[in-house]
Helix-turn-helix domain-containing protein (Amycolatopsis nalaikhensis), 213 residues
Amino acid sequence: MTGPVKRRYDTSRRAEQARENRRRILTAASGLFREKGYAGTAMPEVAKTAGVSVQTVYKAFANKATLLKAVFDVTVAGDDEDVPIADRDFIAAIQAEPSAARKIEMYFAHLAGVGPAVFPVQLLARDAAAADPAAAEVWAQMRAETLTAMTYFSADLLDTGEVRAGLSAEDVRDVLWTYHGPEQYELLCQERGWSPQRYGEFLRAAVTAAVLD
């Protein structure tokens, strides 16, 4: 009877070790990407910083672009739990809110809060895409995921009945997608020195004026 118990224990222990290695790799990669950029970060350096072998890094992440995408996903979520963004509490709170204006306010307040961590990672992928086909695929995936999220947000706003007459779901989605882009953060916060709070308020006001009566 001890054999099966030991195997279950060993499997659980290996799984926990793999998860811990993944966390350490993501933490190391996040710091190095922000410090040295995408091109300046090498996988062996990530391994050394994380305290694991290079083989362990490649076992968890097929290439550097895949690692960048994983860093982005964890940064957006705030953790490495296997819970989709659509199922997170802040999305549920927005969906439960009956007012379209309040939904927009809540969403862009959240975006302003996570933006300083999230947008620099997106911008790394955008800039790397010109020279690295794998990074270009990751950048395209980031854009597509944002478009999908804004499609759902658009439908949620339309369900309130408060969207300006004449605007289609696609119109609202495209406005949301445009203002959600990292380019706005780059221009206003990184280049012009706006605070994240001022940036978030600007997005709230702009989107509200664009889509609501």
